[in-house]
Amino acid sequence: MTDGTLTQAELFDVFSNARRRQTVQYLKRHHGACDLAPLVEQVAAWENDTTTDDVTRAQRRRVYISLYQTHLPMLEDHGIVDWDPDAHRIELLPNEETFEPYLDRDLENQRPWHWYYASVSVVGAAVAVLAGLSVGTLTPGLLPFVALGLCVLVLVLAITHRASSRSKFSLPFATRRF
Q1: Cα–Cα distance, 171 to 164 (Å, whole number)
Q2: Dihedral angle computed from the Cα positions of residues 125, 128, 132 and 138, in that order, rounded to the nearest 10 degrees
Q3: 3 pLDDT more than 80
Q4: CB-based contacts of 23: which residues, under 8 Å, 6+ apart?
Q5: Among residues 105, 106, 109, 89, which one has the least CA distance to residue 36?
Q6: Distances (CA, A) of 89 to 33, 34, 37, 53, 63
Q7: Confidence grade of residue 165 (pLDDT, cut at 50, 70, 90)
Q8: pTM > 0.70: yes or no
Q9: pLDDT at position 1, please?
Q10: Above pLDDT 70, what percent of the chain?
Q11: Three-class HEC string of 61-74
């Protein structure tokens, strides 16, 4: 066990694995302590993009084995949790401000930004093709305006994406994954 001071390299190493990050996030949401079984179910649900009720036995088993044998002992060795393998009980140690910047902020409310960018690209490409083919009121002379509009739209989307990921900034179109 460490003396409670972790180097940045150690923190990057510990939190380089999603299961370890998810374990600490889960513990934070459950007042710093939990039993292994509900943790396993939730981590398996996050990994498989499903609910805890729909997690299969095989999915649960894979997560259980890796948490039990690898991830929880590593978190304990680095002084992040107190792990009792006999009682299957995990407690978050009171040094979370040290590692908070290394955690995923919100596992359940992540926005699908890739879909937003892809949608803007597809719509822009479709309008550009229609303008190039002079379909309806769209003419080739509108192509520079279409390109400019797309650039502005992507810029606004990128600024919104950055602002929402930097702070507790929330958007009116927040999505929730179940």
Answers
A1: 7
A2: 140
A3: no
A4: 39, 43, 67, 71, 72, 75, 81, 90
A5: 89
A6: 7, 6, 9, 22, 16
A7: low
A8: no
A9: 47
A10: 81
A11: HHHHHHHHHHHHHH
